[in-house]
Specification:
Layout (H helix, E strand, L loop, with lengths): L2 H7 L6 E2 L9 E2 H7 L8 H12 L2 H18 L9 H16 L4 E2 L8 E3 L5 E3 L7 E2 L3 H11 L4 H43 L1
Antiparallel strand pairs: 1-2, 3-6, 4-5
Helix pairs in contact: 3-4, 3-7, 4-5, 4-7, 5-6, 5-7
This protein binds zinc ion (ZN).
The site of zinc ion has 8 residues, from loops.
Length: 196
């Protein structure tokens, strides 16, 4: 099931939202999840990933950056030599971009439509992407990383090991939360069939 569908099924709106337009209180992510029998503490990072991926939640993105940076800092403890602060930002931004857009970034040439118009006004297939997405490869990861820290490719290859670990860590957290939601959907299905 798609993440958007899953979040929709539980009416989850993101980090915090106003339950009714006239009301004062904002429901926190934790409260929203508790209402539908889900638990924030299973994996706060996993929830943040899903909020960014499925809801384009900018507050969640900010918080996800903070959490990922902590993890990156831990991983960099075994790094030999010097690295600038900006390297952490580049690592986090690249890892988060990949995990929250696993099918690839939206193509900037066709804006994700996979169709472009040529100089004769003919519609043709976009030559830049695959179905509107720029898939993740060593090249596109490098390109993303160097938007923040413009280093050489050979230098990037050193950072790449930490980047892989960060991506794996985010994916693991995401998987925990997706599993929890799917289990909940399954058990609700089970309950409703018992009633019938
Ligand atoms: Zn394209």
């Amino acid at each position: 099931m798609r993440v958007e569908t899953l979040l929709n099924k539980f009416s989850i709106k993101g980090i915090n939202y106003n339950p009714n337009s006239g009301g004062k209180g904002l429901l926190s992510a934790e409260e929203q999840l508790a209402l539908v029998g889900l638990c924030w503490h299973k994996s706060p990072v996993g929830w943040l990933v899903l909020f960014v991926e499925g809801l384009r939640d900018t507050k969640a993105l900010k918080q996800l950056h903070i959490e990922t940076r902590k993890e990156a800092l831990g991983l960099m403890k075994s790094w030999r030599g010097v690295y600038p602060e900006k390297a952490l930002t580049a690592l986090c931004a690249t890892a988060i971009a990949e995990v929250t857009q696993q099918s690839g970034q939206i193509c900037p040439e066709c804006n994700g439509s996979a169709i472009v118009v040529d100089k004769h006004r003919n519609r043709c297939k976009c030559q830049c992407c695959k179905s509107g997405r720029i898939t993740w490869t060593q090249e596109t990861r490098f390109a993303y990383f160097t938007q923040v820290l413009p280093v050489t490719y050979s230098r990037f290859k050193h950072y790449k090991e930490v980047l892989n670990q960060l991506v794996a860590w985010l994916i693991e957290n995401r998987a925990v939360v997706v599993m929890v939601m799917e289990e909940q959907v399954e058990s609700e299905r089970g309950n409703s069939s018992e009633v019938i």
